[in-house]
Amino acid sequence: FHYFHLMPWPYLPADFDEKFDSTWVTLPNSIYDPIKGHQLYNRYIDEIERADKLGWDSVIVNEHHQNAYGTMPSPNIMAAVLTQRVKRAKIGIVGNALPLHDDPLRVAEEIAMLDVVSGGRIISGFVRGTGMEYFSYNVNPTISRERMDEAHDLIIQAWTRPGPFTFEGEHYNYRYVNIWPRPIQQPHPPIWLPGTASTETIDFAAGHKYPYMTVFMPMDQRKRAYEMYRRLAEEKYGYEAKPEQLAFCVPCIVAENDDIAMKEGEKYVMWLFNRGLKVRPEFFVPPGYMSVRSLKGMLESGTFRDKASFKQLVDTGVIIVGSVDTVIEKLAYLTDVLHAGLLVTGGHVGEIPDYLVLKNQTMMAEEVMPHFREKPVKTEPKPVEIQTV
User: Fold this and answer.
1) Per residue in 137-193, pLDDT tens?
2) Is 88 exposed, middle or buried (0-12, 13-18, 19+ CB in 10 A)?
3) For position 298, what pLDDT does the model report?
4) What is the set of domains in the chain, with CATH numbers?
5) Could you tell me which of 175, 109, 169, 111 has the C-alpha nearest to residue 143?
6) If you compute the radius of gyration of the chain from its CA atoms, what whole number of angstroms results?
7) What are the Cα distances from residue 109, in Å, to 43, 116, 281?
8) Which DSSP state fits 98?
9) d(CA 137, CA 265)
10) What is the 3-state secondary structure (H, E, C) of 169-235?
């Protein structure tokens, strides 16, 4: 189990829905209050530390820019903070948006440094970033996948090849690649690739045997994405994909019964989808950001349909809400039917108060997660044979 935190900015103005058409790129930063931001960061770090103490296997942060949906423009800085607060769990950065970086060697150095500081506990995710980020960073989206692939190759070589060596690419060139420090984990920290069912990303993940993590998708879309991964692994790359190569990220709200969970969930989860993910269409898919094949698949999947209701989000499996038994049943579908082995959950959504986060974390850790843990093998004690002289 892996605990994912977006660190949202929940204090949007009362007239946000009428006055603003996007939570990304153009939302005035005058809305951000640094004093409240200080309080929020410390609250969020406390929640992540608590997840570590309650038994999650890793805690996960990510990168987004110029928005209220997730206030971590530098996930590596947040990961550095967490190395001092999270004592047991792995620390996942899922991930660094490689095409946005003009100096990906810096990413290789920072991840290596974090791995050393944490004692070899870093998970390194790589992403292209959302379409919105290309407006925020003024990066040409038509070459984003080229930059992603080349930056990936540079970072892997920096971690694994003896330095110094020269790297010459189409987008990045270095006379000397010779990172200090080198990561503890060999040959390199684990790499995850999250995505929303882009054909190219799934192919890339399967080709490198990286775990592929689906994010905020209906269950039928997740199923198709996992089937594509397994098919590519077998038919194109010649191996059988394992459950630990398939991850899913889904907000989970668990409560004393289904009615309470639905009531609590609807009040706070809808902030994520109605406000946090309120994006102008031209920001979401800039020209050239997606291939024709992937865009066609997204259109056919219904990604651009009208906003879903809370009930629709629950019924289609975009979110998981319910009693302990209900949540176990729905998670079991992902593990037993879809054979996804990496369960990425999170209990902080939108404006949810800390006492509900605590309740959700505790019930997940004490009543849901044990159901999926490997149970110790029980062995009958062998009779002791007493020998007499």
Assistant:
1) 999 999 999 999 999 999 999 999 999 999 999 999 999 999 999 999 999 999 999
2) exposed
3) 66
4) 2-372 (3.20.20.30)
5) 169
6) 22
7) 29, 11, 35
8) G
9) 34
10) CCCCEEEEECCCCCCCCCCCCCEEEEECCCHHHHHHHHHHCCCEEEECCCHHHHHHHHHHHHHHHHH
Q: Which amino acid is at 360?
A: N
Tell me what pLDDT residue 297 has: 66
CA distances from 268 to 54, 112, 198, 352 (A): 23, 37, 29, 6
Largest CA distance in the chain: 93
Task: Give the model's pLDDT for residue 39.
Answer: 98
Percent helix, strand and coil across the chain, each to the nearest 5: 45, 15, 40
Return the pLDDT at 293: 76
> Which token pair is 109?
């150095």
Residue ranges of the chain with pLDDT lower than 50? Answer: 304, 376-389
Q: Exposed/middle/buried for 306, CB within 10 Å: 0-12, 13-18, 19+?
A: exposed
* Sign of the alpha-carbon dihedral angle for 254, 360, 306, 229: negative
Report residue 119 CA to chain centroid gap. Answer: 22
pLDDT digit string (tens) for 248-263?
999 999 999 999 999 9
Q: What is the DSSP letter of 92?
A: E
Q: Tokens 């991840």 appear where?
A: 111
Tokens standing for 388? Answer: 């007499």
Question: In which residue are the tokens 């054979």 written?
Answer: 339
Contacts of 364 (CB under 8 A, 6+ apart): 1, 54, 252, 254, 327, 345, 347
Distances (CA, A) of 23 to 72, 346, 353, 370: 15, 21, 21, 37
Label the pairing between strands 165-168 and 173-177: antiparallel
Residue 187 CA: distances (Å) to CA of 10, 160, 190: 40, 6, 9
Query: Residue 307 has what pLDDT?
Result: 77
At 250, give phi and psi (nearest 5°): -150, 130
Contact call for residues 307 and 274 (beta carbons, < 8 A): yes
C-alpha triplet 168, 171, 173: angle, nearest 5°: 35
Q: Do 183 and 112 contact (CB within 8 A), yes or no?
A: yes
- Predicted local confidence at residue 387, as pLDDT: 38
Instruction: Report the predicted TM-score, pTM, of the whole model to 2 decimal places.
Output: 0.93
